[in-house]
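Predict the 3D structure for this chain.
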Amino acid sequence: MTTAQRRALLICNAKARNGALDLDAVRQVLRAGGIEPVEPPPDAECRDVIRDRAGEVDLVILGGGDGTMNHAAPALVDSGLPLAILPLGTANDLARSLGLPLDPLAAARFIPTAEARPVDLGWVNGHYYFNVASVGFSAELAGELTAESKKTWGVLGYAVAAIRVLRRVRPFTVTIEHDGTVEKVTTIQVSVGNGRHYGGGMTVAENAAVDDGKLDFYSLEIDHWWRLIALLPALRRGTHGRAADVRAFHAQDITLTTRRPRPVNTDGELTTHTPAHFKVIPKILRVFAPEPVRGPTPFDLAALGSHLFPTSETSRP
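Done. Predicted structure below.
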């Protein structure tokens, strides 16, 4: 099938931070590139539409933040359709991990000539995720945030909520099973990353990639909350695993157990709880993206306000 014959299911989350974008320009760009957008009713459920229309289109274009992508993941896997991304969220960490333009119109211009390449998905207790899943601090933060604060304040809303959560965060004990080993540690947060970026451009690990077939684990085993401030530059670059009070490793299968059930945050949504079984599902989905760009991410002081916490657009189409 030639490029001029392609049809794309275009679904945009109007409640995302930049969901009010005028789509006329996007439609013109797509049509100029030989892609005819097919749009469902605005109140249609994203997953249902993807599954119902799978036989009528050649690709899915999703406009929204990381939560929108996370919500659509099961239907995308079921349909087998490749995904193209219009970044409309607060942090757009999946787009960052893939090296996509963060401007929606620039992202739209990229789609017609782009190639769909395979990426991995993380999986925990039956839930897919693109970026990172975590237990502890960031899960408490996800429960604290509101869609309104994110839309109004962007990444600064995360910083304000983080300060509130810091006042009450307490270390907890978690048992970690991986690669035939069992470890019991005291931590304030454990994170299991599939992609590269999270929390507005923080880096899971300096060599992490969304198509490397592995999970990147870290545990913040710090004595005092202020240690987080000292760790921020390393968390931004993905070099925090070198610190003495940060446990880090790679694996394909990880199980976390806590004394009482604790919520698990997947790309900013509380979707399950411990005990939590994590796996990587290699190359299960195709996404329109350039060749991967790997290596350390330049340090960006302006993005520190996002801190180290996964983000999403809580309201979905």
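The first helix runs from residue 24 to 32.
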